[in-house]
């Protein structure tokens, strides 16, 4: 899994660019995690419980994106994907999957999460 964390020099906004097909992970890091140390600590504790089979599954619903973790993988997805409302978009207007949903291994996610924490610490 390839990614890059940086700060926009003109606006100061945080950016997380993930490889094609995993863009939703980058959106989640910026929009849902940001610089929130409490959320970071919570997720690290959840991952530890998953790794030691003390937890089977965990889900957190964010403002725009949700995250699901189990002992093998992580899924980040747009909240619209889980809505009860049925809507159809024309082909040209359909959501690009990489921007609305992404999967990665739990271990890879933990490495990215730790890298994000270091990046945030250096950015502030």
The oligomeric state is single chain
Strands, count: 6
Summarize the biggest pleated sheet.
Answer: 4 strands, antiparallel
How are helices and strands ordered from N to C?
Answer: EEHHEEEHEH
In short:
This protein has helices spanning about 25-35, 35-50, 95-100, 105-124, and strands spanning about 5, 15-20, 55-60, 65-70, 75-80, 100-105. By secondary structure, the protein is an alpha+beta fold. Helix 2 packs antiparallel against helix 4 (about 105-124).
Protein described:
- The protein has 124 residues and is of the alpha+beta class.
- The chain has one domain.
- The chain has helices at residues 23-33, 37-51, 97-100, 106-123; strands spanning 3-7, 14-18, 57-61, 65-70, 73-78, 101-105.
- Helix 2 (37-51) runs antiparallel to helix 4 (106-123).
- The chain is globular, with a radius of gyration of 15 Å.
- Mean pLDDT is 88; it is low at 89-95.
List keywords for this structure.
alpha+beta, 6 strands, 124 residues, 26% strand, two-stranded antiparallel ribbon
What does the secondary structure layout of this molecule look like, with pairings?
Elements lengths: L2 E5 L6 E5 L4 H11 L3 H15 L5 E5 L3 E6 L2 E6 L18 H4 E5 H18 L1
Antiparallel strand pairs: 1-2, 3-4, 4-5, 5-6
Helix pairs in contact: 2-4
